[in-house]
Amino acid sequence: MKSALNHIRTSLAILMIPAASFAQGSRPISSPNKTTDNMNTRHNKEIISRLYDEVLNKNNFSILEEFVSENYIGPKGEKGVAGFESNIAPVNKAFPDIIWQITELVGEGDKVAVSWISEGTQQNQFLHIPATHKKVNNNGLSIYYFKEGKIVGSRLQPDRLGVLQQLGVLPQDISKLPAIQESLEQVRFIDKFMVPAAAKDEFMKRTNINRQFIKTLPGFIEDEAYTSTDKDGNLHCVTIATWENAGALQKAKEKVQEFYQKDGFDPAEMLKRLHITMDRAVYTKVQH
């Protein structure tokens, strides 16, 4: 369960990564010479076409120095070829048969924008996701910044959500995510009481005090109480307290004991004196 929840949390974190985080180096100031700019733009577009054909599609990162400046800065501060390779190489490794196809190439000044689509089979681990052997289609937009004929920075905006859905990490209907998350680690602390008719008032008064207190504790989500009365007038009561996880429940138990001591309340004494029977257990939700 924890592994599944971690997958979801990490996947959601991936979706929150801003587009600029792929890599961004220093951006040069455009030249005022239009003719020179046009020549440079054509050259830069040719560089990007070769980058996709000769490096990405052939998985040949050994020639990256021909395309990437030593001044390139990756998202984690890596410089040069290492900064560029640190993000794109893991994708090609996870999808070794990946093919990148440029659908549109636009250049202006020191910038080249690329609209692309890719297709590949996940045969190795990708980020936190073990190999699924599923074929994935992706599309996105990349912007490359140039200086002196080499790439000094880049931005990437892929369809992250689509990839995670195709890999089966996130559901196609992302509105179901809250339900998935809440069911993975939550625990329910369930008490079942049989209370003699004469003890009903004192029992309910104490139960209400306890229910109000646990609502103030970290990790508390919600609580419910259900009652019924049998033919002899005895009260049957079920209380259900839902907590974020088992750790939160354990800490709550410790706080409750401190509260009892401070309040001078002995639950075992009350149950014995009022002839109340109790069945207590911790439950987790059954996954479909």
From TrEMBL:
Keywords: Signal. InterPro entries: Cyclase_SnoaL-like, Dimeric_a/b-barrel, NTF2-like_dom_sf. The keyword Signal applies. Residues 1-23 form the signal peptide. The keyword Translocase does not apply. GO terms for biological process: polyketide metabolic process. This is ABM domain-containing protein.
